[in-house]
Design goal:
Keywords: ATP-binding, Cell membrane, Kinase, Membrane, Nucleotide-binding, Transferase
Radius of gyration: 25 Å
Bound molecules: adenosine-5'-triphosphate, magnesium ion
Number of strands: 14
Subcellular location: Cell membrane
Oligomer: single chain
CATH topology: Transferase(Phosphotransferase), domain 1
CATH superfamily: Transferase(Phosphotransferase) domain 1
Enzyme class: transferase
Strand content: 15-25%
Number of helices: 14
Structural class: alpha+beta
Catalytic activity: L-threonyl-[protein] + ATP = O-phospho-L-threonyl-[protein] + ADP + H(+); L-seryl-[protein] + ATP = O-phospho-L-seryl-[protein] + ADP + H(+)
EC number: 2.7.11.1
Order of helices and strands: EHHHEHEEEHEEHHEEEEEEHEHHHHHH
Helix content: 40-55%
Mean pLDDT: 78
Length: about 450
């Protein structure tokens, strides 16, 4: 989905870190949809007018330079060209507003050996499209921030390339390869398997942890500003990490409630008060998180132009179902084929509604969201264990009855098979839990019991 960027009416005059003009919005909400296809010139000038838009205080720069980790690798363009076999279409794994993303293999210092030797590493290489809607400014922001901010739920930047030659500027970013691509790829069915209910909850919690870290756990607060399903990437174990810090910016300094800034983000995800006034707080990210929770529940995009008119805006469509318990099941992603826990889905929708409260102050902090998601996950697991236990007891009873009647009957054999399946499953789960010390989120679904 395309990002937008437009200047808006001025904000609080007490705020000093942005030279926001008092002009009315240059682009309306609807027009922002066409930004990606508008002329580059007008887009660029809007970016340029935002010259103090992020990471702009002296202290913040000091913080970045003090903390700057030296482990970002500087790659040459020829090295990355080789790594992607000349930016081969066969290695293209995605494309966004910044440019194309390729899979590649680079040589990096062997961390284990510590003897200066090199080893191969699979990476994702993003190449800035000089004619695209995002630019050099986002590239710098990404390198500056991801060079110093490290967290298990933020994607790792391995290095970058910045070369200028007679063909123009080359700006590339090299990330750890996230083998299960983006949450958007899964929800839109670009990958064959459907995400189970429990893995959706776990992904939501991981992403919430990433945002919580940015908002609450660093010396400086960072507001992500572009939280959406395509910026939630999944590794081989389906751990979720946030990517794309091009639009991230420093939150308000102490004593200030918000920062006034030009508006950037993606249509369908940005908080209404931010879009209308340019007043940015961490609660704008919380709103976007609420939108993503609804996408996880429904399997639908925030805005989908290919649906009938009354279904195009997810939040408007969902409103009709969420308030009526009899209709609630119609909201849930049909690709789950009933393999979810309704109570858990209702609790998730309640949490989403909290994140989508009109007044930013009424929305929860991300640390609270992490906690609530933890209890929803625990509740879902115990619900599953109870239904599994109930199914096993019921079958044991049946077995006893049947063996009393006629041990040779075909029905008894069927019952035996059923019980065996349940026990096999229990054994399998317990083995997995023992070996990996946690549930196999990817393959596990509470509804499994019901399908046999
Ligand atoms: N580190 C990575 N590992 C694996 N795949 C990636 C990685 N980074 C990006 N991708 C893939 O490339 C796609 C494009 O990513 P990109 O961040 O450039 O754009 P986007 O987030 O889809 O859109 P926008 O630019 O509007 O934010 C992603 O949806 C994902 O499938
Ligand atoms: Mg992205």
């Amino acid at each position: 989905m395309k990002c937008f960027h437009f200047s808006n009416a001025g904000g609080d005059p007490r705020e000093v870190d942005d030279s926001v003009t008092s002009k009315a919005s240059k682009l309306s909400w609807a027009r922002s949809l066409s930004v990606a296809s508008s002329t580059l010139g007008s887009r660029r000038s809007e970016f340029d007018s935002d010259s103090k838009d992020f990471s702009d205080s002296v202290e913040f720069h000091k913080f970045l330079s003090q903390k700057r980790a030296n482990d970002l690798r500087v790659f040459s363009f020829s090295e990355l060209k080789l790594a992607t076999r000349g930016f081969s279409r066969a290695l293209l794994i995605g494309e966004g507003g910044f440019g194309c993303v390729y899979k590649g293999v680079v040589r990096v210092p062997n961390g284990h050996a510590n003897d200066g030797s090199l080893s191969d590493m699979d990476v994702a290489i993003k190449q800035l499209n000089r004619n695209g809607p995002q630019g050099h400014r986002e590239w710098i922001n990404e390198v500056n921030l991801l060079g110093v901010i490290k967290h298990p739920n933020l994607v790792k930047l391995v290095g970058y390339c910045a070369e200028d030659d007679e063909r123009g500027i080359q700006r590339l970013l090299v990330y750890e390869l996230m083998r299960n691509k983006s949450l958007e790829d899964h929800l839109l069915g670009r990958v064959p398997s459907t995400l189970t209910w429990i893995s959706r909850l776990k992904i939501a919690q991981d992403a919430a942890r990433g945002l919580g870290y940015l908002h609450e756990e660093m010396d400086f607060q960072l507001i992500f500003r572009d939280f959406k399903t395509s910026n939630v990437l999944l590794d081989e174990d389906f751990n979720a990490k946030l990517s794309d810090f091009g639009f991230a910016r420093q939150g308000p300094s102490e004593g200030f409630g918000h920062v006034s800034t030009s508006v950037v983000g993606t249509v369908g995800y940005a908080a209404p008060e931010y879009v209308h006034t340019g007043k940015l707080t961490a609660k704008s990210d919380v709103w976007s998180f609420g939108v993503v929770l609804y996408e996880l529940i429904t399997g639908r995009r925030a805005v989908e132009r290919n649906l009938p008119r009354n279904e195009q805006k997810l939040l408007e469509w969902a409103r009709h179902y969420v308030s009526d318990p009899r209709k609630f099941h119609l909201l849930v992603d049909p690709r789950l084929e009933g393999e979810y826990c309704i109570k858990s889905a209702q609790k998730l929708a309640t949490l989403a509604n909290k994140c989508l409260m009109k007044h930013p102050k009424c929305r929860p902090k991300m640390s609270e969201v992490v906690e609530i998601l933890g209890s929803i996950i625990d509740g879902t697991i115990s619900e599953f264990q109870c239904s599994l236990q109930a199914a096993v007891s019921e079958e044991e009873e049946k077995e006893e009855k049947l063996s009393e009647e006629d041990t040779e009957s075909g029905t008894a054999k069927q019952g035996n098979n059923y019980l065996k399946k349940v026990l096999d499953f229990r054994e399998m789960m317990s083995l997995r839990n023992k070996s990996i010390r946690r549930l196999d989120w990817k393959n596990w679904a509470p509804g499994l019991v019901r399908t046999w």
